[in-house]
Design goal:
Elements lengths: L2 H31 L5 E8 L2 E6 L3 E11 L5 E2 L1 E6 L3 E6 L7 E11 H10 L10 E6 L9 E7 L4 E6 L3 E11 L6 E7 L3 E6 L8 E10 L7 E7 L2
Length: 231
């Protein structure tokens, strides 16, 4: 083979090698840019609120959330809060004991976004949806009572809940023995109920039962909560 032909072949080999290297670098860069964000954990925080923690800092663009139940039915979900490494959303009409699947779109790692911008690959940096599951423990179906106080000046018992609640035709019974001390319900809101009672005695243990209440945003039937108190 003449030196001229060898030179041309060598040039072609170098060009092909260079083209292959560029293509490989581009493919690797694209794969790096398009790598999905990973989820560190997802925790149920009560009242239909779920916190999703990412394994790295992220950026957001046109974020969407979709949630389905174990049968594939769509569940209403709204994004409540977003920060550098966590996103929180709220679902409505949930069922305790149920496992749900969520999918988040529009999230990608901050360092990948920066790398894409620096390399001019912004158009290749579309985020990949991330998915996970969460379960609502049965314990979240029970309305938690934070404290019970008796105001002897106005003969009123105030029951404060440790979660936001909602009501349907509430009623109250407060007894020591068989006699109901309740004379009426003065007020009720998403965190408490105020009950008028006949005068209570110091040192006596009273039992209360409140009906027509459930934790806010749940799909559980309205039920009752009971306990005891004294003053």
């Amino acid at each position: 083979m003449s030196s001229g032909k060898f030179h041309i072949s060598n040039m072609r080999f170098k060009i092909m090698t260079a083209v292959f290297a560029v293509m490989l670098a581009s493919a690797v860069s694209s794969l790096m840019v398009k790598a999905a964000v990973t989820i560190s954990k997802a925790e149920y925080e009560g009242e239909g609120r779920i916190a999703v923690e990412f394994s790295t800092e992220v950026s957001y663009e046109e974020v969407k959330i979709a949630v389905t139940d174990s049968k594939g039915g769509a569940v209403d979900a709204v994004i409540a809060e977003m920060d550098d490494d966590e996103l929180e959303f709220v679902i409505s009409n949930y069922v305790v004991g149920e496992t749900y699947l969520y999918t988040i779109e529009g999230v990608r790692a901050k360092d990948e976004a920066a790398s894409a911008a620096a390399s001019g690959a912004a158009n290749e940096a579309a985020s990949i949806p991330v998915s996970g599951k969460f379960r609502i423990p049965e314990s979240y179906g029970v309305v938690p009572v934070k404290q019970v106080e008796y105001d002897e000046d106005c003969s009123q018992v105030e029951i404060e809940f440790d979660a936001r609640v909602e009501w349907e035709t509430p009623s109250a019974v407060i007894t020591s023995g068989a006699y109901n001390k309740v004379t009426g319900i003065d007020d009720y809101a998403d965190g408490e109920i105020e009950i008028s009672v006949e005068e209570l005695q110091k040192g006596v243990v009273y039992r209360y039962t409140i009906t027509g209440v459930r934790i806010r945003n749940s799909n559980e039937p309205f039920g009752s909560v009971s306990g005891t108190f004294s003053y």
